[in-house]
Amino acid sequence: MIVIVTLDEAGGMSFNGRRQSRDRAVLAQALQLAAGKALWMAPESAPLFPGAPVRADADFLDKAGPGEFCWAEGQALRPYAERIEKLICFRWNRRYPGDVFLDLPLEDWRLTERVDFLGFSHEKITREVYVP
Hints:
By secondary structure, this protein is mainly beta. The chain has helices at about 25-35, 60-65, and strands at about 1-5, 10-15, 20, 40, 55, 70, 85-90, 100, 110-115, 125-130.
C-alpha cells in the first residue's frame, strides 16, 4: 500500500486534536496521485474529499491492498511498515504543538523525491516520497 500523510516540521500529524491535512492543494494532489486506484481512509477523513470515490472504513489500513493508497491522519503506521510500498509526506514549513506524531523513523526509509509547491493555507508545502 501507498500511505499519504501530512506533517509539520517536527513530524506532527495533529495538533490540539485537530488534523493538519485541510490544505486544498494537498487534497487535490492526493486525489491526483491516487487517480484510478483505491484511496482508503478513516470515515472521519472522508468529508475532506466530497464527491470523490474514496473508500472509508475504520479498518482501512488492514483492508488496503498492494498499490492502493491510504490517507492517514494520525493512525499508527509502524504495525503496517512491512506492507507500506511507498510513504508520501506533505510537510508544512511550520512547527505546531503536536499531540500525534508519525511513528515511522524516516531515517530508515530512502527519500526518492522532494518537490516544493504553493498551498492554499501555507506559502510553501513540500511533498516527499520515501520507499523502504
